[in-house]
């Protein structure tokens, strides 16, 4: 029988295309099990020959373990399934899809990321509980279900503090409070925005998570939030890879320009190697991250960590994601390792990755940046990109979403333009970023938003 990789996604099929293409280049057949809505949206919005990427496409609505297992059993009659893989599905109304996929792979005797580790990473409260148990986290956080819970937690933790969803993404609803009145306002804002339906797929599922020693914890993302100490210090992202029970740090990006806004934190300009940290601090961050990933027991996965070097407590983890980083992390890994991340992801999910190449020494510094929308509506055009591409130091610049896309900005990040820059100093790169930001003109029709709703 032909060897096939089964991709299971509730996110956009578009995210899978590079992985499916890589799988085909490596001699594998590909099968896509995808949410019906996403499949229909893909067919409607993208002029792509789907069957040039996938040998079989199975649109479904039921992503329960039992239904997916039944589909896999049926597929095994005609295919030799060598991997069951999820690229980057977030929390969903039917559960932690990436964890379900890992459990399916495990039960079929295939390489997998470890389903319980994925859940602990996907739920920010459970992640902190795990870090606390292994001695990497102070007890400066709390799970809250009411405003009174928030106020009690604030008395214990102290201000400033952060209120956030337990399983949000894209910097959605990250609310900083410097005092009691701001915390009250933030809690009411959080409840209102989630009730209004922001990111419903991530929050509309209450569930029990099994803990060791036959214990469990009930989680309801619509009504249970995380309160935690605000970390004051430079923020970085760290890219790692875990395979064959080895944890290997790859890159660290320094978030040189980052803004803390009303209900989100936006990263605009990231530099590698880091600019604001000395060698000792970098080593501390990497050692802390390696220890955490080793103890959490993720495996066969890229890992993207968000961290801060707090002025009082040193390295601290904000979040752990069992996937490749966003923005232009793939471009950065290509620059420093010659790595096609899609091919490497196929090697990971099939258990075929044995080693990684040595890091390529670069004389220049590199930076990635993004430009966000400043209002909601329909994207009409982005002007000035061609001119920016001719600038010295611009390696790559790209419009992420096609014209006609509904764009948003109220409570979360949305990349409209991303770019990869090179230069001999951070100052040069920062000046180039600011020049590009001035020259790019994003045109958004706000009235169309109301017509679409």
From TrEMBL:
Any Pfam family: ATP-grasp_4
Superkingdom, taxonomy of origin: Bacteria
Domain ATP-grasp: 128-350
Keyword annotations of the record: ATP-binding, Ligase, Nucleotide-binding
Protein name: Biotin carboxylase
Organism, as annotated: Alicyclobacillus tolerans
């Amino acid at each position: 029988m032909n060897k096939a990789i089964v991709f299971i996604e509730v996110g956009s099929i578009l995210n899978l295309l590079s992985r499916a293409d890589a799988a085909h280049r490596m001699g594998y057949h590909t099968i896509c099990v995808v949410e019906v809505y996403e499949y229909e949206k893909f067919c409607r919005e993208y002029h792509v020959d789907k069957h040039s990427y996938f040998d079989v496409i199975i649109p479904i609505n039921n992503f329960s373990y039992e239904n997916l297992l039944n589909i896999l059993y049926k597929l095994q009659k005609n295919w030799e399934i060598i991997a069951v893989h999820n690229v980057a599905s977030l929390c969903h109304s039917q559960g932690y899809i990436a964890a379900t996929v890992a459990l399916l792979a495990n039960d079929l005797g295939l390489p997998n990321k470890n389903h319980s580790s994925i859940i602990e990473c996907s739920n920010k409260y459970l992640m902190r509980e795990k870090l606390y148990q292994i001695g990497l986290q102070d007890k400066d956080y709390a799970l809250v279900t009411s405003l009174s819970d928030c106020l009690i937690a604030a008395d214990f933790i102290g201000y400033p503090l952060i209120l956030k969803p337990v399983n949000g993404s894209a910097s959605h609803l990250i609310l900083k409070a410097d005092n009691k009145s701001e915390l009250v306002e933030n809690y009411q804002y959080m409840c209102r925005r989630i009730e209004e339906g922001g990111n419903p797929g991530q929050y509309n599922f209450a569930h029990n998570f099994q803990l060791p020693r036959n214990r469990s914890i009930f989680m309801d993302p619509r009504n249970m939030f995380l309160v935690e100490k605000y970390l004051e210090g430079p923020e970085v992202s760290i890219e790692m890879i875990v395979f064959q029970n080895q944890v290997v740090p790859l890159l660290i990006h320094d978030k040189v320009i980052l803004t803390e806004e009303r209900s989100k934190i936006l990263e605009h300009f990231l530099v590698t190697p880091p600019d604001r940290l000395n060698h000792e601090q970098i080593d501390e961050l990497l050692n802390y991250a390696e220890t955490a990933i080793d103890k959490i027991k993720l495996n066969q996965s890229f890992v993207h960590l968000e961290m801060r070097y707090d002025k009082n407590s040193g390295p601290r983890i904000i979040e752990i994601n069992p996937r490749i980083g966003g923005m232009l992390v793939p471009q950065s890994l290509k620059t420093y390792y010659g790595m096609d991340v899609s091919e490497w992801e196929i090697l990971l999910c099939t258990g075929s990755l044995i080693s990684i190449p040595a890091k390529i020494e670069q004389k220049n510094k590199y930076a990635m940046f993004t430009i966000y929308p400043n209002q909601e509506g329909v994207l009409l055009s982005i002007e000035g990109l061609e001119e920016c591409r001719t600038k010295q130091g611009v390696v790559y610049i790209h419009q992420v979403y096609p014209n006609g896309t509904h764009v948003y900005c109220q409570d979360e990040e949305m990349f409209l333009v991303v770019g990869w820059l090179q230069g001999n100093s951070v100052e040069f790169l920062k000046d180039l970023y600011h020049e590009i930001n001035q020259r790019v003109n994003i045109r958004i029709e706000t009235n169309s938003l109301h017509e679409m709703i």
